[in-house]
Amino acid sequence: MSEVKFLVVEDSPTMRQLIAFALKRIQGAKVVEVADGIEALKKIAVEKFNLIITDITMPIMDGLKLISLIRENDQHRETPIIIITSDLSEEQRIIGLAVGANAYLTKPIQPAELLKLVSQFIKN
């Protein structure tokens, strides 16, 4: 089993920890955690990830701006992105998918639900 690299972009340390803990159940998982979109862009400039999980509402740069910038980058255009957010509005979900997210999960998240969704995007 080869390494599977995840980038978790979430400003809440508790939520970031919860997501990372769930992802680490996947064999070969390496989880990189950052608190905002700027940090995320710095990480993807030097590393390739199999999947990115991002919140929408964050300081400095929100998740929607981050996703649109990732999609403009040739190296990461095809990287699956999952949005995890507390915004339950259908409008926000549509916008998130329109800017390039592959899936949308609302908080509070269930680790089993997250892992099921993640498994659809990574080859195990």
Describe the structure.
This protein is of the alpha/beta class. It has one domain: Rossmann fold, CATH 3.40.50.2300. It is 40% helix and 20% strand. The chain has helices at 13-23, 37-46, 63-72, 90-98, 111-119, and strands spanning 4-9, 29-34, 51-54, 81-85, 103-106. It has a five-stranded parallel sheet with strand order 2-1-3-4-5, with helices on both faces. It starts with a strand and ends in a 5-residue tail after the last helix. The mean pLDDT is 93.
Give a nutshell description of this structure.
This protein is of the alpha/beta class. Helices cover 40% and strands 20% of the residues. It has a single domain (4-115), classed as Rossmann fold (3-Layer(aba) Sandwich), CATH 3.40.50.2300.
Strand content: 15-25%
| Relevant CATH superfamily | Response regulator
Multimerization status? single chain
Would you tell me which CATH topology applies?
A: Rossmann fold
Share of helical residues:
25-40%
Largest sheet entry: 5 strands, parallel
Strand tally is: 5
**CA-to-CA gap between the ends?**
7 Å
The geometry reads as globular
Number of domains: 1
Q: Any idea what the CATH architecture is?
A: 3-Layer(aba) Sandwich
Task: Provide the spatial order of strands within the biggest beta sheet.
Answer: 2-1-3-4-5
Uncertain spans: none
